[in-house]
Amino acid sequence: MEFLPLFFDLKSTDVLVVGGGEVAHRKVSLLLKAGAKICLVSPQIKSDLKEMIEASNGQIVDSEFDVSLIAGKRLVIAATNDKSVNELIAKEANQKNIPVNVVDQPELCSFIFPAIVDRSPIIAAVSSGGSSPVLARLLRAKLETVLPSTYGRLAQLAENYRNAVKQKFTQINQRRGFWEKILTGPVSELVFAGKEKEAERLLKQELDLADDAKRELGEVYLVGAGPGDPDLLTFKALRLMQQADVVLFDRLVSEPILEMCRRDAEFVNVGKARSNHTVPQDGINQLLVDYAKKGHRVLRLKGGDPFIFGRGGEEIETLAENGVPFQVVPGITAAAGCSSYAGIPLTHRDYAQSVRFVTGHLKDDSTDLPWSELAYLNQTIVFYMGLMGLPTICKELINHGMPEDMPIALVQKGTTPDQKVVIATLSTMEETVKKQEVVAPTLIIVGKVVSLHDKLKWFDPNQDLKVL
For the domain bounded by 14-113, which CATH number is listed? Predict the structure, then answer.
C-alpha cells in the first residue's frame, strides 16, 4: 500500500494553495466543498479562480511563494509549473510536519488527491498512488454508475437514527444486524424510490418492534475460497465474506482473498499443515459452535472447495448436532483450478473418459490407496496433498501396471502469480522434483492428458509480455 487512504475534516481550517492556473482552480474547488479556508499565493491568478476565492472570503497573496506563508496551515498544495518552487514547498512543509501535495509529482507528496465519488455523506475515493490518474478516473466512472445519488440520503437517514439504535441495542452484533436489515431491505428501497417519509416511518416501526433483550443465534458460512486467484470467487462467497464478523481461515487461503473480507472482522488462523495443526480439527469444530452461540456470523473460509478434501462435512456435522444454522458455498476445487491454469484438461475424448480425485495421504499419514483401480490407462488421477508421498505414488502406479512413461504433472500454487508446473513421467518425476525448488501447496495430475500441457498452456506468470 503506497498511500493510506484517510479523510480529513477541513471545515474552517487554513489551507495554502500555491499556484493560480487551471490545476490550482480544480484543487481549490474540492477544498472549498470540504469547507476549507483558502490562502492562494501566485503572482498571476485566473480571473474565475480569483472570484472563487473572494466569494469564499479566502485570502489572496499576489506575489511569489514565501516560506513564511506555510506557518499555521493544515494542508499545503503546490500547483505551480516551477519544479524548484514545488520542491521548496514540499521541503518546508515536510520539515513542519504539514501534509503537502505537489501536483503531478507523487515523489514529493505526503498525501495525494484521489478520484472522488461524492454521495455526501457517503464519499468513495479511488487512487492509483499517483502512478495512473487516468486509470483512477476510469474506475471512478465505473463506481458512479453503480452508486445511486440516493445513497447519500440513505446515509443521512441512518445518521438521524444512529443514537436511537445504539440506545435500543446493547450488543454491537445486534446493532449490526439491525442496520444490515434496514440498509438492504424495504427501507433502503423506499429511499431509492424517493419515498423518504415512508422509509422513515418503516424504520421507526422496525426499531419499535425490535427486541433488544433477545440474543439471536448466529450463523456459520462455510465458504470455498478456490485455489488462490481472487477472481475465481463466487458472488455469494464475496457477499458473505463482507458480512461475517468472525473469520476462521486456513493456510491455503491467499492473502489477496483475506483482504476482501470485512476489515473490522475478527480473524482467527486455524491453518493446518502436514503434522502441524495450528488448531486441531475438533477444536475448529467447537470454535464454530462457540462463536455462533455468541450471536456471531462466522465465516469458515477454506481453500478450494469445502467438501473436496476440505473436512467441511465434519464441520457441518458438529454444527447440525448443536443446532447452529449454516450455509455452504462451493468453491472451485484445486483440481479444476490448477489443471485449467496449467493447460491440462482433466478429461478429453482422445485420452481420458473419467477423472478421480484422491488424497495423497490419509488420516494416519499413510498412502494406502486402491492402486489397482487407479492404474487405469484412460482416466486422469488427481492427487491432493501428495508432495510428500510422490515417490510412493509413482512407484505403486508403475507396480500396478501403469506405463513408466505415463505423463505426470506437479502444479505448485496453481492460479497464483507463484504458479509453477513441473512435467515428467512416472519413472523420472522423483528425480526431476529433487532438482526443483518445489514447495506446498501442490497438486499432482497423472494421465495422458498431461501431454497436452505444452500445446494448451496459457497462464505463465513468469513469462514476459511481448510488445508488438
Answer: 3.40.50.720
